[in-house]
Amino acid sequence: MFAGLGQFADSCANCGLDFSSYNVGDGPAALLTMGIGTLIIVLALGVDSVFHPPFWVHVIIWVPFTAALTVISLRMAKAALLAAEHRNRAREAGKSDLL
Q: Considering its fold, how many domains does the chain have in total?
């Protein structure tokens, strides 16, 4: 399904489904930014209130954790959105869709 870290392949290797006709866009990235950002802030505040580490410890802990969680989650979110578009036969709106 994926050709790179977060990029779709041109088509499915098994069934030949053309992935280029689907428009996943930036929806998953925006949603993950909000969700993961909230989770990281809550966890960082919890760690800070319990252990009181210096700032550099927070950087060493949270920057790689945030990057890894985002990359892993982005693949799943993009795949889920593509599956939803395929299942619901989503398409771009045209003139016939207006009032």
A: 1
Q: Please state at what angle helix 27-51 crosses helix 55-87, rounded to 10 degrees.
A: 150
| Pairwise CA distance, residues 6 & 71, whole Å | 7
Nearest to 25 by CA among 98, 99, 92: 92
Q: What is the CA radius of gyration of the chain?
A: 19
Distance CA 59, CA 48 (A): 12
Tell me the C-alpha distance between 78 and 83, whole Å: 9
Q: How far is residue 17's CA from residue 39's CA, in Å, rounded to a whole number?
A: 35
pLDDT tens by residue, 6-31: 788 888 889 888 888 888 888 888 88
- Flag whether 4 is in a domain: no
Residue 91's φ and ψ, nearest 5 degrees, are: -150, 170
Question: For the whole model, what pTM was predicted?
Answer: 0.74
